[in-house]
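quick one before i forget lol
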Amino acid sequence: MSGSILYIHGFNSAPASKKATQLVDVMQRIGLVEHLRVPALHHHPRQAIAQLEAAIAELGTPLLVGSSLGGYYATHLAERHGLKAVLINPAVNPHQLFDGYLGTQENLYTGESWELTHDHVQALAELEVPAPTDPQRFQVWLQTGDETLDYRRAELFYRACALRIQAGGDHSYQGFAASLPALLSFAGIGSAQYQAIDFSLL
């Protein structure tokens, strides 16, 4: 489906996250919500990737929108399938960052408890791809105030892509709603469909 979007949430996040719900709201308003998928991802990378592959099969050639760990998943899938992606404060090589997080985790939205194991880390390592080099397919949105990930890692890794770096902000990406017109445009959705929406009110 042209104009379709697959939103990929981050580590211990869920479809109830603010960015996901803002995107759902806008897609409902413009009558394209059936072109959007926001799966509640399994905490294990192999199962999460299987869910995302199924969503891509449904949507055809969606724009991948990945936040944090979802940005890592989106990078892998975009390179595998030749898809476009918007990466929001993406995690770079997260398997290198997770050693200190092994053990019990809790999903911030669902309250689900689960165990982060070495198998999770190994599964993440298996998804690693070389740095993308196509600025036509990759937009990378970073905020320097990200308190969870050092934005400079992503700035370096994605340096050949289209980078948008904003001063300040945080890991959740402040002002996401105001950036939605650019995201919709990149997905191939014409501006006439959303020009009546006041994105500052989302």
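fyi The radius of gyration is 16 Å.
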